[in-house]
Amino acid sequence: MTEPIKFANQSVRKHFGSVKSEKYFDDLVDIIKEKAPDYSMRLKEILLGNSISVGNMLIMRRDYFNEYVEFVSDVLFKYKKSNINN
User: Fold this and answer.
1) Domain definitions of the chain by residue range
2) What is the dihedral of CA 41, 72, 1, 11, to 10 degrees?
3) Which of 20, 36, 55, 73 is the most buried (most CB within 10 A)?
4) What is the DSSP letter of 86?
5) How, if at all, do strands 51-52 and 5-6 pair?
């Protein structure tokens, strides 16, 4: 497992907002909050924190994986659709 990435003097939200317009980032967060309100508190904790763990390996049961892929796909398709219309 890799060590978390730590951002000096800025939150995760500010870091990603500086990479891409904060509006795009806020739109994604709004979609996630709408689709999964149970995640709102944890999402807020992560965004206000200054470290994040990233990776591209998923080791889990197939049913959890399918649920994850469905969730991520729904969020990304809605995000793409809303940005095409704006």
Assistant:
1) 5-85
2) -40
3) 36
4) -
5) antiparallel
DSSP characters over 42-61: HHHHHHHSSEE---S---S-
Letter string b/e over residues 15-25, b meaning 16 or more CB atoms within 10 A of that residue's CB: bbbeeeeeeeb
- What is the pTM for the complete model shown? 0.72
Measured CA to CA in angstroms, residue 66 lies from 42, 45, 57, 72 at distances of 22, 26, 14, 10
CB contact at 8 A, 47 and 13: yes
pLDDT (tens digit per residue) in 21-43: 778 778 888 999 999 999 888 88
At 36, list the tokens: 């999964």
